[in-house]
Amino acid sequence: MPHLAISGQVAQKKKIEQYIVNLCRALNINRMHSKLIFLNFKTDLGDRYGDCWGDSKVGYVDINIGRKLEGEKIPFSDMMQTLAHEMVHVKQYFRNELNGYATTWKGRNAGGYKYENQPWEREAHRLEAKLYTECWPD
Question: Cα–Cα distances in Å, from 122 out to 13, 19, 52, 61?
Fold first, then answer.
């Protein structure tokens, strides 16, 4: 399991830790013991629910999850589905499918995509609801 550091105010931190463990298993990154995941819960990310940045060479990712969207509170379940989406990006960074600057995807030039057509975003959107449903500890 990658090392995990959680910062910011959020309810159910223990459940979130188990959720990350379950997501790592589902994404097959649970044996990457030298990797680091920094999970930050922020008050407001403006027009985004979350974001993720990683460096596969150094072996870390930073995930930011917003508690509010443009001033309105985000439901906890939406925050956790967003976390599943961002964990797909974690897998992409750790497996070197996506580089930190989003200029290559699986070794090929990835410039020029519109956001909705970026293959890394398409994969994350496709998997987020399934991962949330299967991995959230009840």
Answer: 28, 22, 15, 19
Determine if the pTM surpasses 0.90. Answer: yes
Residue 67 in contact with residue 79, Cβ under 8 Å? yes
For residue 109, count other CB atoms closer than 10 A to its CB: 8
Type of residue at 127: L
Q: What is the crossing angle of helices 76-94 and 119-135, to 10°?
A: 120
- Domain hosting 117: range is 3-135
Burial class (CB in 10 A: 0-12, 13-18, 19+), 4: middle
Please tell me the total count of domains within the chain: 1
CATH of the domain at 112: 3.40.390
- The tens digit of pLDDT for each residue in 58-110 reads 889 999 999 999 889 999 999 999 999 999 999 999 998 888 665 777 878 77
